[in-house]
Design brief:
Helix content: 55-70%
Distance between the termini: 32 Å
Structural class: alpha+beta
Number of strands: 4
Largest sheet: 4 strands, antiparallel
CATH superfamily of the largest domain: Homeodomain-like
Strand content: 5-15%
Order of helices and strands: EHEEHEHHHHHHH
């Protein structure tokens, strides 16, 4: 078995695209999730270069160094929490990240800030705001339901944070109906 770590995988469609690309190259995928692919056998160097070239053309990137893998794993955990699990956090973000990555949160936080130029908390908030935008555009939930879904303590807190990040109130954002959402790999 061989594991490939891949940057910029942010959704189920990314998983599907990466899997299809690897299978086109004759590689058998044993398991795939955001940011990580387990292959049944290790690719040859020539195959690995071809994988890298094809993935880069699709907006992905192979990650070779340990620190970059940790950063991608932090992002993946946050994206999964915000966009897939509807914010159902049983404990705080620092405990979740420490548990998932098997590192002290201070180490993770310092590494993330050093490499990304922003804090884990700001990245988490940015992801939550993108999710709020998405839910506002879908127009299926009230602002109160959105606040509850994303673990905000109140609608007022969500509204204040939304305005601080976007410059707009949620209701104004909803009125203009302009898709001001960013792709998740650009957050």
């Amino acid at each position: 078995m061989s594991t490939l770590f891949i940057k910029n995988m942010v959704c189920n469609r990314c998983i599907m695209v990466v899997q299809n690309e690897l299978e086109k190259l004759g590689l058998k995928v044993k398991n795939i999730k955001l940011g990580e692919v387990v292959l049944e056998t290790a690719p040859t160097e020539a195959n690995k270069r071809k994988v890298e070239t094809n993935l880069v053309a699709l907006g992905f990137e192979l990650i070779d160094d340990r620190r970059s893998r940790i950063i991608e794993r932090i992002k993946t955990v946050i994206i999964e929490l915000v966009h897939r699990q509807n914010g159902e956090m049983k404990s705080n973000l620092s405990d979740i990240l420490s548990s998932e990555l098997h590192h002290d949160y201070n180490y993770l936080s310092n590494l993330f800030s050093e490499i990304e130029g922003t804090t884990i908390e700001k990245y988490f908030i940015a992801q939550k705001i993108e999710r709020v935008k998405e839910l506002l555009v879908y127009d299926e939930l009230t602002l109160s339901e959105i606040a509850y879904t994303l673990n905000y303590s109140s609608v007022a807190y969500l509204s204040n944070q939304f305005k601080k990040v976007t410059g707009l109130t949620p209701s104004h954002f909803k009125q203009i109906k302009v898709d001001k959402r960013k792709p998740l790999d650009r957050v």
